[in-house]
Amino acid sequence: MSSLPVTTLAPPRPASEVSSSLRAADPHSRRRRRRSRVMRTVLLAGMIAAMIPLALILIEVGRRGANAFGWSFLTQTEPPFRREGGGYLQGLVGTFYMVTFATAMSVPLGIMAAVYLVEYGRGWLARVIRFFTDVMTGVPSVFVGLFVYALLIRDIGFGTFVGALALSVIMLPIVVRSSEEMLKLVPEDQRAASAALGARRWQTIVKVVLPTARPGLVTGAMLAVARAAGETAPLLLTALGALSVVTAVQGTPQSALTLLIYDGATQPFAPGQQRAWAGALLLLGIVFVFTAVARFVSSRSTVRPD
Amino acid sequence: MYSTTTGTHPGIELRHSPVGGETPRSEVPEQIQSAVFEIEQFGVSYAGTPAIADISLRIPAGEITALIGPSGCGKSTLLRSLNRMNDLIAVATHTGTIRYRGLDLHAADVDPAEVRRRIGMVFQKPNPFAQSIYDNVAFGPRLHGRSKGLDDVVERALRRAALWDEVKDKLREPGHAISGGQQQRLCIARAIAMEPDVILMDEPCSALDPIATLKIEDLMRQLREDYSIVIVTHNMQQAARVSDRTAFLTVDMEAADGQRCGRLVEFERTEKLFTQASDERTEAYITGRFG
User: Fold this and answer.
1) Per residue in A224-240, pLDDT tens?
2) Superfamily (CATH) of domain B13-23+34-286
3) φ, ψ (nearest 5 deg) of residue A22
4) Size of interface A-B (CB pairs under 8 A)
5) What is the interface pTM, i.e. ipTM, of the complex?
6) Among A68, A90, A108, where does a domain finish?
7) Model pTM?
8) By C-alpha distance, which of B175, B196, B194 is closest to B127?
């Protein structure tokens, strides 16, 4: 025992000093508590400041939009800007039509791309896809409209399909990236369990990976839908706009809520502007519902990161 | 044919001469009658770095074989090589051969998915699918095209895994809603539902409490009647309790190139290995002097 090396430790503090630093009246303690209060106030103020624009939008859109909003707003098409009454039926139909098409095109493709990236993506191809997906997420949406316009309008004209195509280009990178994140959350031990039962790669993907990630995939798709429903710029040059309900898939210019809002708000006539506010309220409601459903689905997610 | 007298370690035939006064476990014959795996000069490298090397071993059919050894000795790598799960690691390469019931597992015409179907596996952490208990057990049979009589298959597998009484009223509940020990038995039931020939277990109890561990060990003793079992364990008492034979692997520190690599030290009837180890490294490990 005597051969143990002697380590020098700081001598213990006197008991009086220890207990005084634990008391609330201690100057160090006071300063720390004051700093804590200040930080808390600053952060609270920042949070409130950030909420102001959002709250103003909600209040203003709710207040002004309520005037022209009603059952007829959903069931009638828009009269000339000068006339009161009517609604945005053709926009509602157009938005629904195009977003449905765009979803049908972008969601399966986006999920397939994400599966490739997560399950097979190791080489240069995966890196290239990932890079371009990131770039696409940041491309200004008016450019997407311009791109589809330049590529297709001269040959097949304005219409539902080209509008939906522009929207799907907007949605695709969102779906790919959100799905990729969700698929990555599927624990590796699930794939191992499946392989150990003799499942082939594709069987593991179809029977284990996709079902496990399903709520997350649905959430990503919903958020992409909400984003597409609110897009104006890509539709200006592809759907163009319409005065009546259009059911044609292609060849006839199509309307959309955002296009009607844009038109109504830029005209100098009060009834048209009022309807634009109501249209904004409707769109806000649609986006809200989709976001809320997406949140609800993801809160029931079966995928939990370990 | 294969001879265990080659290699750097003493082969099992070399040491079958009974030691005086010892009464072997009646159900564990001195010599291995029929081998389910014949491992010959087997080695695995990860991205060129050897993890295990020069392992030769005959794993008997109808018995429980334990692989023990310190961390990093490659016992899990060896286990995962037995059903080619190690193929899933892109950088893994192997040398030597493993014959399963006489068939070279790594032959070009062998389908790894079929191999895994015959040789089931239970993992360290219970990993039921995020599906119902029923669907977990039915997963394997469904995978291979079975759709009729699944109720019977599921019930039989769950009974065999000693889980039926605990879950029979909640077959539709998610597989991860039961306790850890039950989840691990569910994973065993999932493997049994494939009607495999061999079950590999990779530290199946390391995430479980002592009571759940004892249940799994009881279960292993029952399963021994129908299946050959190979278990990797960190727990030497567990190896002593459940296994018929034990292989002790260690990390070879004195490799010429300075790389640490797992090697087989000895393979013996468990009772003998734990009482009269013939290699001093085994002796040191099981008495707790290293590892």
Assistant:
1) 999 999 999 999 999 99
2) P-loop containing nucleotide triphosphate hydrolases (3.40.50.300)
3) -85, -10
4) 63
5) 0.85
6) A68
7) 0.81
8) B175
